[in-house]
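wait is this the right file?? whatever heres the structure
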């Protein structure tokens, strides 16, 4: 019967289809990574201004720095994933932490190199043009790996990243990641009140979501904390997490902060006191997560 040949033929078709599907997915990831790289290159020259280092961003930056310093003593070797213009790398080096600073954007790397070259530092900072998806090309051993303001949201394969982080971390090493969350009350309210319901709901999307910046596209994946940690759970124990900019407005609403500084300072104190509470810590513009290598 001719039917006896069908399983073999069907199996071959399935394999070919799977290979084509994997190839198409890899090509899509590569295209999205390139789009994201171009977007950050386009803003690198002025990223230290209101777009990338305003008062609200500085507050969040200070929180991550406090957590890293609490977890690791000076002298610990740090890897910066998505270093931007190098502000965090420079700050940690000034405190006595040797840093390897990496970024996927050549424009951001150039800004970091210029910042480091103009500073007198007690410990070295090495700068590499390297995407988080390229960590397999990096050697060395680190006591801590940190990433600030959402570079992890642009990574196509977090499970592979978790494996590489485990390879690069010394036993007992820590990850400290600031990640864009899925539930941002300020964003929901701000855009809904303006009738921009599609923009208000953008974080609810699954998978890579196009977010515009400077007439370019950043392909972004949003997470609840438990969704994010799931990719790391086999390799890393969750030490804790907290909300960032839950009561405070998100950084792109810095004009509101400047018009109402006293109100926002009170909101900031609520962030400090309540940001680690159950349920509340699952919301906010970002969440800050600490994980330890198993």
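ok assuming it is, sequence goes like this
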């Amino acid at each position: 019967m001719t039917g006896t040949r069908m399983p073999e033929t069907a199996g071959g078709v399935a394999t070919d289809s799977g290979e084509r599907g994997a190839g198409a997915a890899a090509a899509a990831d590569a295209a999205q990574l390139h789009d994201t790289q171009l977007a950050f290159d386009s803003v690198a020259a002025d990223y230290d201004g209101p777009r990338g280092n305003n008062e609200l961003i500085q507050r969040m930056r200070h929180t991550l720095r406090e957590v890293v310093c609490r977890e690791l003593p000076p002298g610990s070797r740090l890897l910066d994933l998505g270093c931007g213009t190098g502000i965090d790398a420079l700050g940690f080096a000034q405190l006595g932490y040797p840093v390897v600073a990496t970024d996927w954007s050549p424009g951001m790397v150039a800004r970091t190199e210029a910042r480091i070259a103009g500073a007198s530092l007690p410990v070295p900072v090495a700068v590499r043009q390297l995407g988080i998806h390229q960590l397999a090309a990096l050697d060395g051993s680190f006591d801590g790996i940190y990433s600030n303001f959402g570079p992890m949201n642009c990574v196509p394969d977090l499970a592979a990243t978790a494996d590489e982080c485990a390879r690069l971390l010394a036993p007992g090493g820590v990850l400290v990641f600031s990640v864009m969350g899925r539930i941002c009350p300020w964003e929901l309210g701000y855009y809904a009140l303006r009738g921009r319901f599609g923009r208000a709901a953008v974080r609810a999307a699954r998978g890579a979501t196009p977010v515009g910046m400077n007439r370019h596209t950043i392909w972004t994946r949003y997470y609840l904390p438990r969704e994010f940690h799931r990719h790391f759970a086999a390799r890393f124990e969750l030490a804790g997490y907290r909300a960032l900019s839950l009561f405070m407005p998100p950084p792109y609403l810095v004009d509101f902060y400047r018009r109402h500084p006293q109100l926002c300072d009170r909101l900031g104190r609520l962030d400090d006191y309540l940001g680690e509470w159950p349920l509340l810590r699952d919301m906010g513009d970002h969440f800050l997560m600490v994980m330890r290598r198993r």
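The longest strand covers residues 169-180. so i think its the right one actually
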